[in-house]
Design brief:
By secondary structure, the protein is α+β, with helices and mostly antiparallel strands. It is built from 14 helices and 15 strands. The chain has an 8-stranded antiparallel sheet with strand order 2-1-12-11-10-9-8-7, with helices on both faces. Strand 1 (30-37) and strand 2 form a beta hairpin. Residues 15-346 form the Beta-lactamase-related domain.
């Protein structure tokens, strides 16, 4: 689906207002944000100052745990090249983990897949993990040999683990034969043209590098940068809005089904593997109103009105980052603030979801041609015709005999005063579909309407396996 550019331009003022309000409330010394579509950045903005000037879309911030999506991409690329299996135990790559005593005698050794999906049994370790970035590989090995505690049996539940992604950095190094940071630079950042993104503070452009801060009373205190090390794979990258939005757009492009869209302009990772990373692989428990979980280095939530939303936050001492996009439309947003615990995810979520609702960007039902053809035949039958015998699966008559169905249809039609209009008169606004094989629609009557639902079989050609007709009276 494609968004209306004019409607989007008219709506972005709400994003600026949201961030200006946050600046007035002193959430952070500065913020930089950008809104993107499949065609690129369409709006950027900022608040506050960096080095005595207003930040721009090129101002560099730490992206913290948004780095995990780069780590996951590097792993999937190695998997696709045959260099590793996601179901291999971590001990194949990190021998020191063999000294870790597992929580039960029948616990499996955590696999690469478990680490990717935050289900290796390790406890949530924010903010401890954020302070470990600079440790060496030898120090990480020593940590493992001293032993670990587990929250759960590996492979059974979600818990956000920085240590798990530190281990994945080692997996990348061992499987590729190169240092983790070199793999990310040479196989992801370079080919994608993310020239302002890296693991070291870009000193040559210090006038456009945001310094992290923490609040102390009425003051903002600057914080030193940590250097790269054994935990860089959990959150070590620096990046500006221009680069991170390009990264998010590249990930989202895997779902672009417009004519001519391939998204494989870089050769880094196939569209299929990028879509795989953006699937809910491990559910995240919580009180949220809809299903959500973790894929590979990315969170995935399913909004019943908008469809899937993909995101990741980043929180480091002095920094907050968030990237979020709507795969069905390609609309997304990235934002940074340079303050500890600023939670820039809050305004991004509010802004993006508000825009999606305003632009009516919920995925439109996409149904098979056979589903539409079956609808037409069902409508004819409801008006007294016969359903073609080869269109209906055998279970339909076995579940409720057709004689009984037709009697119920007649009663339902009579209860709404008969059907109005021509045979194709429908209440299109209320059509619903949860899958290409499924369709719900309404036929108007004088005092109500008929709700009709069909679902087709997986055969070729598909046949009607579900056929429900229900009267809905007005008032």
């Amino acid at each position: 689906m494609r968004l209306d550019p004019a409607a989007l331009r008219d709506a972005v003022h709400s994003v600026d207002t949201l961030f200006q309000t946050r600046a007035a409330d002193s959430h952070a010394p500065s913020a930089s944000y950008g809104l993107f579509t499949r065609d690129g950045l369409v709006h950027t903005g900022s608040t506050g100052e960096v080095a005595s000037t207003a930040p721009t879309a090129d101002t560099v911030y730490r992206i913290a745990s948004c780095t995990k999506s780069f780590t996951a991409t590097a792993l999937l690329a190695l998997r696709d090249a045959g260099s590793l299996s996601l179901d291999a135990p971590v001990t194949d790559f990190v021998p020191a983990f063999a000294d870790v005593v597992l929580p039960t005698t029948d616990s499996p050794v955590p696999t690469v897949r478990m680490l990717l999906t935050m289900s290796a049994g390790l406890p949530t370790d924010d903010p401890w993990g954020d302070r470990q970035e600079s440790i060496t590989d030898a120090e990480l090995d020593a940590l493992l040999r001293r032993g670990l505690r587990f929250d759960s049996i590996p492979g059974t539940r979600f818990a956000y683990s920085n240590l798990g992604y530190a281990l994945l950095g080692r997996v990348v190094s061992e499987a590729s034969g190169r240092p983790y940071r070199d793999v990310v630079r040479e196989t992801i950042l370079g080919p994608l043209g993310l020239d302002s993104t890296g693991f070291e503070e870009p000193a040559e452009a210090s006038d456009r590098v945001a310094v992290g801060h923490r609040r102390s009373g009425d003051e903002w205190l600057p914080l030193p940068f940590s250097g790269p090390g054994g935990f860089s794979s959990i959150g070590g990258l620096f990046s500006p809005v221009t680069d991170l939005s390009r990264w998010a757009r590249w990930l989202a492009s895997a779902f672009d089904d417009s004519p001519g869209a391939t998204g494989d302009f870089d050769g880094i990772l196939s569209r299929a593997s990028r879509r795989e990373a953006q699937q809910l692989s491990r559910s995240v428990p919580g009180p949220g109103p809809h299903a959500s979980g973790y894929g590979f280095g990315l969170f995935v939530e399913h909004d019943p009105e908008l469809g899937d939303i993909v995101s990741h936050s980043g929180g480091y001492p002095g920094f907050s980052a968030h990237m979020r996009w709507h795969p069905a439309s390609g609309l997304g947003m990235v934002a940074f603030e340079n303050a500890t615990y600023a939670q820039v995810s809050v305004p991004v979520t509010t802004a993006l979801h508000g825009l999606l609702h305003d632009l009516e960007a919920a995925p439109a039902p996409t149904v098979w041609p056979e589903t539409l053809a079956a609808r037409a035949e069902v409508e004819k039958a409801l008006r007294g015709g016969d359903l073609p015998s080869d269109l209906v699966s055998e279970n339909v008559d076995l579940d409720i005999p057709f004689a009984e169905r037709r009697a119920a249809w007649r009663a339902a039609i009579e209860s709404i005063g008969g059907l109005e209009g021509a045979a194709n008169a429908r209440d299109v606004e209320h059509d619903e579909s949860t899958a290409p094989s499924h369709l719900v629609w309404h036929l108007p009557g004088r005092t109500g309407r008929l709700r009709v639902e069909i679902r087709l079989t997986p055969e070729l050609p598909p046949r009607i396996q579900t056929l429900r007709v229900q009267a809905e009276r007005l008032g």
